[in-house]
Specification:
Oligomer: single chain
CATH class: Mainly Beta
Strand content: 35-45%
Radius of gyration: 25 Å
Number of domains: 1
Structural class: alpha+beta
CATH architecture: Beta Barrel
CATH superfamily: predicted glycosyltransferase like domains
Largest sheet: 6 strands, antiparallel, barrel
Order of helices and strands: HHEEEEEEH
């Protein structure tokens, strides 16, 4: 890499170095657009959880195992995948009762990797206050069991 050369005609002046930079002088470029990862989209803390679950789409059904739970959703280990953004009903049998929650497929992992099972992230939607309390209580019970 070469260093820039200056001649008498293009050399910076003392005024150039002393000039105050004002906010209007700077134009910031927005960061490049990219999809957020599941972790970046997530607004709730997940906890490990183990529970068999049934998931119902408009004309589809699958079962799997919940491996983590938050008040915002679940991850279901399964080899059957719904399409992204499909609306689903989740049949959860939690300690305080069975819930039928609405959700949508937020993301899909269709490959197996190191410590990564295939499955789907489901984001809960339109959860009633009572159902939210049931989920939060299940999280508290599981957290107490873990530590």
């Amino acid at each position: 890499m070469s260093t820039p050369s200056f001649s008498a005609e293009n050399a910076p002046t003392q005024e150039h170095f002393e000039r105050e930079v004002r906010p209007d002088d700077v134009t910031a470029s927005p960061p490049p657009e990219r999809e957020l990862t599941g972790a970046e989209q997530r607004t709730s803390t997940r906890i490990p959880y183990h529970l068999e679950v049934n998931l119902y789409g408009e004309n589809e059904f699958c079962s799997g195992v919940v491996t983590n739970l938050s008040d915002g959703g679940i991850f279901i280990e399964t080899y059957y995948f719904f399409d992204l953004d499909v609306e689903v009903k989740v049949d959860l049998d939690l300690p305080d009762g069975r819930l039928w929650l609405s959700g949508r497929v937020a993301w899909v992992r269709d490959t197996v990797g190191d410590n990564c099972a295939p499955g789907m992230g489901i984001a809960f939607r339109d959860v009633s206050a009572a159902d939210q309390e049931t989920v939060l209580h299940a999280i508290k019970l599981a957290s107490d069991d873990c530590g």
